[in-house]
Amino acid sequence: MTVVSDEQLLARCRAGENPAWNELVERYSRYVYAICTQGFRLGDHDAEDVFQDVFTRVYTHLDRLREDASFRPWLAQLTRRSCLDQLRSSAREEVADEVEPADVDETLSLLDDALTVHTAMAALSESCRDILDRFFARDESYRVIADALGLPSGTVASRISRCLDKLKPLVEETGAAARPGIG
Amino acid sequence: MNAFDHEELGRLIAALRPVPAGWVRAAQELPAARLAIEGIVSRAVADAAYRDRVVADLESALAEEGIEPTPAVLDELRERFLSD
User: Fold this and answer.
1) Which residues from B are below 8 Å from A15, CB to CB?
2) What is the pLDDT of residue B71?
3) The complex's ipTM?
4) Which residue of A37, A137, B14, B73 is most buried, as measured by CB atoms within 10 A?
5) Which of B3, B12, B71 is opposite residue A49, by nearest beta carbon?
6) Per the domain annotation, does A110 fall within a domain?
7) Which residue range is the domain that position A62 belongs to?
């Protein structure tokens, strides 16, 4: 399966193609959400404000992004700043400088690796993407997955294992391409 | 990124959970929202009574255009009216 690069997607967004914008939002929505809720521990109400603010800024600043290959770190920085603004606006004035969680860098590094894995998943078959997402990201049980996909429940674990085997080399390939400075 | 086994891959897949329903759709509607904002602003420039109604109730003006009045969209519309 051919995966459209960020650069291609951004070019199509600038050309006004709504499907490209939809794809860009879909591709990065979980990452932005995770930075808000895991990195900065925002509740869903504040996280939703930040989420919409971030994508509004992305949309309005698309023309100003100098390096399309740097979209991902730019988005992370944009989200981080927006989370800090949100925390400062709700914190008491005297503690406003101490709003950033102590372990935020560690969490954001984990989320960056997680995004690399999810990006690599895009190159898997739809059935593999679906079963891995259901089991790991949506916490669905073998029984629920088997019922939803019409599989014998005894085969779900082995299918997940086979899909992880297929994912591993894709992650190594994607991870190399996503290292800082390369994109 | 370091080498990893199935457990580590699973942990990383699990780190990016689904976004609550409606958030993605609202963000995807931003291009339409911007078009609607442009339309509201243009109409308000030409029609003072309409402008007064919009300024009094931004959310209803957006709702009439079928646009979700998210805080980000409301902020943008508010800024446009303050700057115009």
Assistant:
1) none
2) 79
3) 0.88
4) B73
5) B71
6) no
7) 1-103
Closest listed residue to residue A73, CA positions, set B18, A81, B28, B8: A81
Percent of chain B scoring above 90 in pLDDT? 27
Judging contacts by C-beta atoms under 8 Å, the chain B residues touching residue A113 are 1, 12, 15
pLDDT in tens, B25-62: 999 988 888 888 888 889 888 999 988 888 889 888 88
> Looking at the complex, does the CB of residue A162 fall below 8 Å from at least one CB of chain B?
no
Q: Are residues A136 and A180 in the same domain?
A: yes
Q: What is the DSSP string of A53-95?
A: HHHHHHHHHGGG-S-GGGHHHHHHHHHHHHHHHHHHHHS-GGG
- CA distance readout (Å), B23 to A63, A88, A100: 24, 23, 24
C-alpha separations of A77 from A64, A80, A108, B11 in Å: 15, 5, 10, 24
Residues A11 and A86 grouped into a single domain: yes
Give the residue among B80, B48, B46, B47 at the shortest CA–CA distance from B62: B80
Separation in Å, CA of A50 to nearest CA in chain B: 9
Q: Does A42 touch chain B (CB under 8 A)?
A: no
Q: Which of B12, B27, B31 sits opposite A52 (nearest CB)?
A: B27
User: Is the separation of the CB atoms in A117 and B10 below 8 Å?
Assistant: no
Question: What letter would DSSP give residue A98?
Answer: G
In a domain, A53, yes or no: yes
Q: How far apart are CA A153 and CA A170, in angstroms?
A: 27
Question: Total structural domains in chain A?
Answer: 2
CATH code for the domain of A154: 1.10.10.10
Looking up tokens 């992370």 gives: A76
Buried b (16+ CB within 10 A) or exposed e, B68-79: bbbebbbebbee
Same domain membership, residue A16 and residue A89: yes
